[in-house]
Amino acid sequence: GAGVSQSPSNKVTEKGKDVELRCDPISGHTALYWYRQSLGQGLEFLIYFQGNSAPDKSGLPSDRFSAERTGGSVSTLTIQRTQQEDSAVYLCASSHPLTSGGYNEQFFGPGTRLTVL
Amino acid sequence: RKEVEQDPGPFNVPEGATVAFNCTYSNSASQSFFWYRQDCRKEPKLLMSVYSSGNEDGRFTAQLNRASQYISLLIRDSKLSDSATYLCASRTGGFKTIFGAGTRLFVKA
Questions:
Q1: Percentage of residues in chain B with pLDDT exceeding 90?
Q2: Of A38, A83, B67, B101, which one has the greatest count of Cβ atoms within 10 A?
Q3: Which of A41, A55, A111 is nearest residue B101 as measured by Cβ atoms?
């Protein structure tokens, strides 16, 4: 597709279950980002990938959160033993490092709305 | 203190008004700055990058003040369609981008 896609679009799970969220970035975009947005709040940075490596994992809220990226493309964000406070919209974005002018516009996917009961 | 801070608003303005948003950042190593627009229950989309010398795109003007560590967005001749949340963002070296919580704008007829 032409844009960033994420799946599932909605996920309802029970407290204590594990969930996997998927992101397909724009083809050719080497940088990939994960954010979390709680109701009425701004974007909370979680992690970014440059290729398959994650230089900065500082935003991951706890060790229940992990992410990986394979083949420089698809990324998966995994939340283990979900808690109610994990309920939020999880947004993925991608960017290409060589856009005109050197500024890196991030293109966002539609997000995954996670609800933990 | 949050690394990027914005007035949450909401700003309620009539059509045709001029409205200004400010955003402050605390990390002096920040190199690039952006304004994103987010419509209700939609993903953010880039509105403008903010250049050191200031830049304008139609009715929108963005400015950067490195000494005071703030960026601003001016919207002239507001339209109903400008109603949205405006997020400022700063990026340090590398790709890590920090977003503010956003400022909500309502433009009314």
A1: 75
A2: B101
A3: A41
A65 within 8 A of A77, measured Cβ to Cβ:
yes
- CA B107 – CA B11 distance, rounded (Å): 8
How many angstroms separate the CA of residue A90 from the nearest CA in chain B?
A: 10
Percent residues over pLDDT 90 in chain A: 66
The answer to whether A30 and A72 have CB atoms below 8 angstroms apart is: yes
Question: Which of A35, A41, A103 is the closest to B32 by Cβ?
Answer: A103
Residue A98 banded pLDDT, cuts 50, 70, 90:
low
What integer is the mean pLDDT of B34-55? Answer: 91
Q: Which residue has 């083949």 as its token pair?
A: A71
Q: Which of B6, B43, B97 has the CB atom closest to A45's CB atom?
A: B97
Dihedral, CA atoms, A93, A96, A102, A104, nearest 10 degrees? 0
Q: Is the dihedral of CA A2, A109, B27, A56 positive or negative?
A: negative
Touching check for B91 and chain A: CB below 8 Å?
yes
Return the pLDDT at A100: 47
Residue A45: list chain B partners with CB under 8 A. 96-99
Residues 6+ apart with CB under 8 A from B53: none
